[in-house]
Amino acid sequence: MCYIIITSGSLVWFLCTLVANMLIATALVTPKWLIGPTSDQMARQSSVGINTRCKMMQQQVTTTYHCGRFDLDGFATDSTVYPSEWKAAMFFMSLGVVLLSLTVFMTLVTCCRQSAFGKSIHNMTACAQVVAGISAMLALFLHPLGWRAERVQRLCGTDVEPFYTNDCSIGMSFYCGLIGVLLTFAAAGLSLTAESANMRQRVRRRVEEGSKLVCIP
Q1: 217-to-9, 53, 198 alpha-carbon distances in Å
Q2: Rounded Cα–Cα distance for residues 42 and 4 (Å)
């Protein structure tokens, strides 16, 4: 028999996973990990992300603000242009996004099915979320290790070092990633609450009565 179980626990778990996925994906694609110093001559601040950057560019008589990628050859891009630490950060952050995207789908599957291959889907999803959180956390750690790169020195000054921004400041992309990691680990913990909520006596009774849609707060 096909049935759908929706509880407050499963709904909170789904929303937490979805928001975590969106935040980490935002951190991955936006060029706001490091924000350059303000200047009276520049209307907007230059910035850099994992593989993207924004800066003011002189074009003939006008100056424009341009954002784009600098990893034109992907992981094969020269390390002087695309630091090796940032390549590793890109890999781990991308892995985290892929795993979290899968777990968003799996949280919906648990509304209809509780186990697969003799294993709890809740537990398997929680394990995937822990791996995703660790991957994204590694990316947050690896990015500052590449701050000795010439690209960062031009942006933040020659005194910039790993975990010391000098004239720059931490941008919203880094904070999105950090909050996303915390929510990912929280989602892994919430999976236990969601599983116990789906196994409550009230839910079992409704299913045994033949209800195909069970919504219990």
Answers
A1: 8, 46, 11
A2: 56
Mean pLDDT of the chain: 85
Condensed to tens digits (0 to 9), the pLDDT of residues 168-183 reads: 999 999 999 999 999 9
User: Dihedral through CA 8, CA 9, CA 11, CA 14, nearest 10?
Assistant: 170
Identity of the residue numbered 143: H
Distances (CA, A) of 14 to 44, 68, 191: 37, 33, 9
Interatomic CA distance for residues 197 and 158, integer angstroms: 55
Q: Which residues, including other chains, have CB under 8 Å from residue 95's CB and lie 6 or more apart?
A: 132, 135
Q: Do residues 67 and 54 touch, judged by C-beta distance below 8 A? A: yes
Could you tell me the CA-to-CA distances from 141 to 11, 29, 60, 131, 137 in Å, in that order?
A: 31, 17, 40, 15, 6
The model's pTM is 0.86
Helix axes 84-109, 121-145, angle to 10 degrees: 160
- Which two tokens mark 104? 């968003």
List the structure tokens of 106: 């799996």
pLDDT tens digits along 83-92: 999 999 999 9
